[in-house]
């Protein structure tokens, strides 16, 4: 099982003819993703040539809009490789087309543009699940990749992973590669994002094949504290967590636009305490966090043996 993405999803790429779109379309196809076309209004009616996972040459049609691509291909998922200045329009176009899943990889989208797109999606009834922006996307190992996560880190398994950080997503997948993952989802580190820790944790709780949840947070905001409250009230599966930024200085933005400690809140220590109060085991480093997850998984396998 998986959350949000599986081998049956039909994927289009907004910005399929650009440098990043071209590169990652090829990698997604290699991962087995069912990419069915792309969108670029200036190159509508053309095709792009790629190779699928079986080594076959595929000609992917380029459409003038998301709505047209959905109509012609039956696509239910889009990934946007669009520069920051044009990302708001690309997101709004996908929302207007009511595509069920949209992954926005782009880093550096102005916060006011992300806030506008988020509010617009709410106004339209939230028919589109947005993952991102500024994220690595989502991967269901062995089935589909919609994003930039390397597809060869690990295989299928019982761990559900939700993370603010792309790099830490990859590290955690590598650390626990011998167990494998149901789905790994990078939600992004911007102040305004679509899918939250809580959204992913809720879906993992409902997924029968996900046996343990690993969540990675970072300083800034209160997303981890809200996730802790949700876990305490609603989650029965074991949850292991890590919060990046224990040594970050107050008032300085750290990498992600959302990763800034303001006076009175957003510290790694406060987030760790909230998570531990909810019964989440929190590691001081990514490797220590992986070790906590490993201990739980090994005990579970012994118990079921």
TrEMBL record:
Domain CoA-binding: 4-109
SMART domains for the chain: CoA_binding
Species classification: Bacteria, Bacillati, Actinomycetota, Actinomycetes, Mycobacteriales
UniProt-annotated catalytic positions: 256
Complex formation: Heterotetramer of two alpha and two beta subunits.
Pfam families (alphabetical): CoA_binding, Ligase_CoA
GO molecular function: ligase activity
The protein's annotated pathway: Carbohydrate metabolism; tricarboxylic acid cycle; succinate from succinyl-CoA (ligase route): step 1/1
Alphabetical UniProt keywords: Ligase, Nucleotide-binding, Tricarboxylic acid cycle
Binding site for substrate: 170
Protein name stated in the entry: Succinate--CoA ligase [ADP-forming] subunit alpha
Binding site for CoA: 17-20, 43, 105-107
PANTHER family reported for this sequence: SUCCINATE--COA LIGASE [ADP_GDP-FORMING] SUBUNIT ALPHA, MITOCHONDRIAL, SUCCINYL-COA LIGASE SUBUNIT ALPHA
Record-stated family: Belongs to the succinate/malate CoA ligase alpha subunit family.
Enzyme Commission number(s) from the entry: 6.2.1.5
PROSITE patterns for the chain: SUCCINYL_COA_LIG_1, SUCCINYL_COA_LIG_2
Reactions the enzyme catalyzes: GTP + succinate + CoA = succinyl-CoA + GDP + phosphate; succinate + ATP + CoA = succinyl-CoA + ADP + phosphate
Gene name as annotated: sucD
Function: Succinyl-CoA synthetase functions in the citric acid cycle (TCA), coupling the hydrolysis of succinyl-CoA to the synthesis of either ATP or GTP and thus represents the only step of substrate-level phosphorylation in the TCA. The alpha subunit of the enzyme binds the substrates coenzyme A and phosphate, while succinate binding and nucleotide specificity is provided by the beta subunit.
